[in-house]
Structures are given as structure tokens and as C-alpha cells.
Amino acid sequence: MMREWATVVAWRDGIATLHTEAKTSCNSCSARKGCGSHMLNKLGPKDAHVMEIVSATPLQPGQRVELGIKESSLLGSALLVYMTPLFGLFLLAGLFQALFHSDLAAACGALLGGIGGFIVAKGVSLKVGDRAAFQPIILNVALPPDALRVESEA
């Protein structure tokens, strides 16, 4: 199971709004000056992910929760998103090449197949995305921010 910690933004009527930050591996690497990934991460957006998850337990803003999602559903999603357009690209490129005997036709078929693959992946993801196996679940709930008080005697 893949695990990630998130911060509660709001909780209302059994729905928790959670905030997770996008992580990169660049913080643990020492080759920052010569790395292209580090440069791309600096250029890219620094946004976080906001999601809504069903939670029967009342949560307070600022509270931390551990989310989990099955590796099999994550792998299935990645296969759908990456392989469907690639399959469509090769299929229509080969079909157009065989029908029209032209490289331009094969390129047009590849473009149409790739776009069609993305559309098919989007449609399939809308149908199966609501299944429980593809939804993250709350594994652990940390103490609320105001539940622990440390007092020092001076």
C-alpha cells in the first residue's frame, strides 16, 4: 500500500478536505547543479494537491492524516494513462501506413491514434475512477494540533 501524509483543511458532513504537497526527490540528491530534473522542478508549479475524502471521524483543520492507496490500482491507472495512447498511436499509424502507403498518412494516423487513445483513457477513467479500489483511504489520524500542550516551568 502506498502511503502519504496529508493535512486537514476542513471537515464538514463526513467529507474531509485534505491538502498534500507534491514531493520531488531533488531534496535528497547532491547533484543539483548538473541535473536537468532539478532545473525542471524549479521551473514547474509548486502547487499542492487538494482532495476530498469520506471520513466518519470528525477532523479538525491542521490535523494530519495518513492516506493509503493500493499499489495495484495505482499501477492500473498508470497503465491506462500511458499505454492506451501509445497503443492507439501504433495501431492507427500502422493501419494508415498499410492503407495509404505514405509516411505522411502514417504520421497523421499516429497523431489521431494518440489523441484517440487519450480520449479513450479519459472515458475509461471516468467510468472506473469512482470504484472503491481507486479511492484513497484514511489509515491513521494524528492528534489534533491543540490536543497536546507542552508547558515549561521557568
TrEMBL record:
Keywords: Membrane, Transmembrane, Transmembrane helix. InterPro entries: RseC, SigmaE_reg_RseC_MucC. Signal peptide: none annotated. The chain crosses the membrane at residues 74-98, 104-121. The keyword Transmembrane helix applies. Pfam families: RseC_MucC. NCBIfam families: PRK10862.1. This is SoxR-reducing system protein RseC. It comes from Pantoea piersonii.
